[in-house]
Amino acid sequence: MSKAEFVVVANRLPVDHDPDSENGWRRSPGGLVTALEPVMRKADGAWVGWAGKPNLEVEPFDFEGTHLVPVSLNEDEVQNYYEGMSNDTFWPLYHDVIAAPRYRRAWWDSYVTVNRRFAEAAAAAAADGATVWVQDYQLQLVPQMVRELRPDLTIGYFHHIPFPAYGLFAQLPWRRQVIQGLLGADVIGFQRVADAGNFARAVRRVFHYETKATGIRVPNADGTTRRAIARAFPISIDTESYIELAQREDIKARAVEIRENLGNPKKILLGVDRLDYTKGIRHRLKAYGELLNDGRLSVEDVVLVQVASPSRERVEAYMQLRDEIELTVGRINGDRDTMDHSAIRYLHQAYPREEMVALYLAADVMLVTALRDGMNLVAKEYVASRVDNRGVLVLSEFAGAADELGSALLMNPHDIGGLKDTIVRAVEMPAAEQGRRMRSLRKRVRENDVERWSQLFLNALAKAKEPENNA
Ligand code: F6P
User: Fold this and answer.
1) ipTM of the complex
2) Cβ(30) to ligand 1 under 6 A?
3) How many Å lie between the centroid of ligand 1 and the Cα of residue 160?
4) For the segment 454-464, what is each residue's pLDDT rounded down to a tens digit?
């Protein structure tokens, strides 16, 4: 294939290897993939990423209009770069050390090696003067590595997860290398204004570079400087596709069927998360269990549906979390279930988007209780799906989505008493108030959809490259 004018570099390809499917691949359902899918379709670009399994050596290929460039990882690299450095060091550190980050030199070495492989693949795929857009914390060294290989390229980086306060970031033994890696980008995008602020502070503390508003003066090797931009671009969803699904007769009928299958409770509460310790699932279960024990809620009237999709299952902290959650669910159900009613319907599974929209339509209360979350697209998916202007979103202040979705019931998930009161308030909320809040939430999610997100980012990137910004 000829070289691409636009190259996305992400840890994962937008497809999963599936030997049973027609051509060996199927589109994968992840949040990032969903977010970038519409952009890629339009731009006719290339996507550099890992196919999700060790030792898979595959030549570049085209899939549904996108050129895919697979990067191969061996079993050691999956353990050290992906499970270790990305998901047992950066992930907990950047989510305010909810779990303890582990700092292993062998993991870091592997992270450097693999980042270089991604950078080389991106540099090889890009046409003269092309734009390269690097995604997320697994690839923080790639921007600077690409710049060194291909100074002609315009380089963007988007950080999908939180960027922590300097007091925490400073723990990282490789903090200089990470800041330097990110500063290789012309535009460094974050979910929240606070994340961009934390990053700028880290740049000042580690390198003493001048930062002014969103601009950072970065020295070049020849003594001149260039301006990098670090600012917030809150990500969103393909809102229109959720609206279309929510209006489909078969999906509306499926929502009714789900309700019936659950025994037609007065209220359905819903949690939808990757099974991750950042999501506050334990806090949610604690609050709900106590409400049943206190008699403020009853299994005759309410049920909690908790979808917890399997994630990073070989990382110790995730194995432990699964055990704890399944123990808690078992206890609550054991204590509170009747022959006819169950307190919690727990599903350790992932579902297609159609089924999720039916579930969103069936749920009277959506519980997003993350302890820390870059954005939380589930909150936006729920809002987009409520074409009937009904339903209540309970949303953690610690999710990026809280900056935009102020008409949700915002709460602090660490405050179990407050969370319990908020759940009761949501369950009892009159229809008129639901409508008022939901209309305002929907307006925001319709205006700021994923296409607008990528447009804003790519416009900022084009502008950052204009000569007057670099002296
Ligand atoms: O948004 C954070 C993120 O880590 C993405 O980069 C990733 O696609 C998603 O969560 C799921 O995680 P994983 O790729 O580790 O399964």
Assistant:
1) 0.93
2) yes
3) 9
4) 999 999 999 99
